[in-house]
TrEMBL record:
Domain TonB-dependent receptor plug as annotated: residue spans: 71-171
Protein name: TonB-dependent siderophore receptor
Membrane topology according to the record: Multi-pass membrane protein
UniProt entry tagged with the keyword Oxidoreductase: no
Domain TonB-dependent receptor-like beta-barrel, residue spans: 280-689
Compartments, as annotated in UniProt: Cell outer membrane
Matching SUPFAM superfamilies: Porins
Keyword Transmembrane: yes
PANTHER family, A to Z: FERRICHROME IRON RECEPTOR-RELATED (PTHR32552), HYDROXAMATE SIDEROPHORE RECEPTOR FHUE (PTHR32552:SF74)
Similarity-based family: Belongs to the TonB-dependent receptor family.
């Protein structure tokens, strides 16, 4: 039996309730239940790694407020995709996980750029173990396509999260929690085979170092290759991760880690054209592509981090964390725009581009959190300072000399095109972005059933940029972001909350002249009910409203001057989003896991027109699995369903502005896993069982992208 010193300190800090606790502790890579007698535990759940539990039920989370609160104690909507759910659904990338998270929708721009949205707005802020990492909205360094093998779970806080993230919109903040060393030696080797020649091999080894057990290490390596349903396009991904955790003293823990990811797509390209030149819609099959055999995309990222935690005798925790990120980017491709003639296939225009880029990022985070007594009651507080420095250098080379002809485009396929001789690289985006902020948050125990979470953040944001030769500087200083949430416990099972926060969000979208739009300002309101229906079964309901001014809205048919592949935007005031969410997550019965959710988000501009129309207004999601008992215990069956309402875009067709729509649809998945021995198991995932035809995106530069057809994947794993 193993409990680390942090868990023991938390038990001592919060423990008042005596009850038996059922834990699942990996020993030699095998999981079995172990009952601990009369262990003192509070109503607050310990934030144990979710891979040590076979449940969809979440533990404590610090993503919303920096305080280690349970979901029930947090005055915002919080969802957690646990290790068990990732495993059951066979989710191989961070993007696949997000696509199945409650309230989050996905659309894609091309073969490698994805956009995720929640509550009517794009998600622009991500965290790794709590360290803020803003993504590059236009230059894609793979920020939304990490391999899932290195993550224990993903926490999603929906709504405005400016308290911890500074500049942020009322969509969501996503926190990727990395896997840590396990208490005992464990090793797993797994392999996947699937449709479109999918081949995946993963190795995961965790081991203590030395006899004392104070230091442990973990190493993960993944190679993932596959063709796709799109002609002439294939992916090749490599991931390596190592982390060392050591208890330097009885009160001080340190983690050191490094991760390396290299993702490459051969045959990278955009979507297929939705119109013929005569104005009629195209009807290409699901293998339609708009690429060339020589086109390719790659991103290579190395991220190193150190995380030090020191626990004081008064139960306060001090944390210092630092992360350094080095990224390389490349995209060589042909972008065909326009509309082909139905008979000859001619008439499309060509844009040849060869991009190269380098990015370095440094994140630092200092925090202190713990309890204090005042007026005879115990309260909690957290203080922090964060800083992110992001340096980017993007270069572009065009063809040198004559441009190759692109031929015709027939039946969803373009004629072979020769790769041009590339000219010299010229800088197109040389920028440095620095964000910093200090925050303070307290959880006041006003009465036994009533708690107030209140905080404030002071933020600074500065960007210096040379964008296609134009020198620009943007800065915003001493921006205050208040946060307040009131939680009332009706009884030990039900609680209600109201919360309010202000919004300050910079925008990475540009006007027609190429300048960045000014930041968005606004307010976010939320009212919710949280219920513990049974042990490890929670229900959450939330009603929300956000108000924004200065929001960037795409100008139909207009691009940035001199940039035919960059959408132009305008700022609009009076944007609102109103909506409703509900989620049921945890165990319905012993062995039966479920995560079910429904979301309605209605974004409107000042004129009452729908915004963010490339994402659905309504979504319903279900993921479930059942572990049999008795003689059938080795068998687990489950599945999932995703339904979304219609999406559309007003795009430029041959006859002018035309609305293109993808109607509502649902996708159904099934899974089965069988443990042949305690060491050997096999899992089948059948995705899109009904072979539903749908578009992942419509109307982006008058093009579209088919969603993946029915596909089967077989996974085998061996535990040492």
């Amino acid at each position: 039996m193993f409990l680390d010193s942090f868990a023991l300190r938390q038990i001592g800090r919060f423990g008042l309730l005596t009850a038996p606790l059922l834990l699942s502790v990996p020993v030699s890579a095998k999981e079995f239940p172990l009952e601990l007698e009369a262990l003192v535990v509070s109503g607050r759940q310990l934030s144990a790694d979710s891979e040590q539990r076979d449940s969809y039920a979440p533990g404590a989370s610090t993503t919303a407020t920096s305080l280690p609160l349970s979901i029930k104690e947090t005055p915002q909507a919080v969802s957690v995709i646990t290790h068990q759910q990732i495993k059951d659904q066979g989710l191989g990338t961070s993007g696949e996980i997000l696509h199945r998270a409650p309230g989050i929708s996905m659309t894609r721009s091309d073969s490698n750029r994805f956009n995720y949205s929640a509550r009517g707005y794009s998600i622009s802020t991500y965290q790794f173990d709590g360290l803020m990492t803003p993504i590059q909205g236009y230059w894609n360094f793979g920020d939304t396509d990490w391999d899932s093998a290195i993550y224990d779970r993903i926490e999603v806080v929906r709504g405005a999260t400016g308290l911890l993230t500074g500049a942020g919109d009322p969509s969501a903040s996503v926190n990727f929690i990395r896997k840590k060393p396990l208490p005992e030696f464990a090793a797993r080797l797994s392999g996947d085979l699937g449709r479109w020649d999918k081949r995946r091999l993963a190795a995961d080894v965790s081991t203590p170092l030395g006899d004392s057990g104070r230091t442990a290490a973990r190493f993960i390596a993944v190679r993932d290759q596959q063709d796709t349903h799109v002609d002439n396009m294939e992916h090749d991904k490599q991931t390596y991760y190592g982390v060392l955790n050591s208890q330097l003293t009885s009160n001080t823990d340190v983690s050191l880690g490094v991760e390396y990811q290299h993702n490459q797509t051969d045959g990278a390209g955009s979507g297929f054209p939705m119109f013929y030149a005569d104005g009629n819609r195209t009807d290409f099959n699901r293998s339609a592509s708009n690429n060339t055999r020589w086109s390719h995309f790659f991103n290579e990222t190395t991220r190193a981090f150190i995380d030090v935690n020191h626990f004081l005798d008064n139960s306060w925790r001090l944390r210092a964390a630092y992360s350094y990120d080095d990224g390389n980017y490349g995209l060589t491709y042909l972008f065909r725009s326009g509309f082909p003639d139905r008979n000859t296939g001619e008439g499309m225009s060509a844009y040849f581009a060869n991009y190269r880029g380098d990015r370095s990022r440094q994140d630092v985070h200092f925090t202190a959190e713990g309890p204090f007594e005042l007026f005879g009651r115990e309260h909690e507080a957290a203080f922090g300072w964060v800083r992110t420095q992001d340096e980017l250098d993007m270069r572009l080379a065009g063809p040198a000399g004559a441009v190759p002809g692109i031929g015709a485009y027939h039946d969803g396929q373009g004629d072979p095109v020769a790769e041009p001789v590339w000219g010299a690289f010229n800088s197109v985006d040389d920028s440095e972005l620095v964000q910093s902020g200090a925050y303070a948050v307290t959880r006041w125990s006003l009465a036994a059933p009533l708690h107030l979470v209140a905080g404030i953040r002071l933020s600074n944001w500065e960007l210096e940029q040379v964008y296609f030769g134009d020198n620009r500087k943007y800065s915003y200083s001493d921006e205050l972001t208040p946060y307040a949430g009131l939680i009332y416990d009706f009884n030990h099972r039900f609680s209600g909350y109201v919360s309010y926060t202000e919004i300050f969000q910079t925008q990475n979208v540009r006007s027609a002249n190429g300048s960045l739009l000014d930041p968005i300002t606004g307010r976010n309101y939320e009212v919710g009910l949280k219920a513990t229906l049974a042990d490890e079964l929670d229900m959450n309901v939330a009603v929300f409203r956000s108000e924004q001014d200065g929001l960037g809205e795409a100008i139909p048919g207009e691009t940035v001057n001199g940039r035919p592949d960059t959408q132009a935007y305008r700022a609009v005031d009076g944007a609102t989003v109103e909506g409703f969410e509900t989620e049921l997550v945890g165990r319905l019965a012993p062995g039966w896991n479920v995560n079910a959710s429904f979301t309605l988000a209605n974004p409107r501009n000042a004129d009452g027109d729908r915004m963010n129309t490339a994402h659905p207004r309504q979504q319903a999601k279900l993921s479930t699995s059942y572990q049999f008992t008795g003689n059938w215990r080795p068998l687990r069956l489950g599945g999932g369903m995703r339904w979304q309402s219609d999406i559309y875009r007003d795009t430029q067709g041959p006859a002018g502005t035309t609305r293109v729509t993808q109607g509502s649809y649902s996708v159904v998945d099934l899974m089965a896993r069988y443990d042949f021995t305690p060491d050997i198991s096999a899992q089948l995932n059948l995705n899109n069982v009904l072979d539903k035809e749908y578009h992942d995106q419509v109307g982006f530069y008058s093009q579209a992208w088919w969603g993946a057809p029915r596909n089967l994947r077989l996974s085998l794993s061996y535990d040492f």
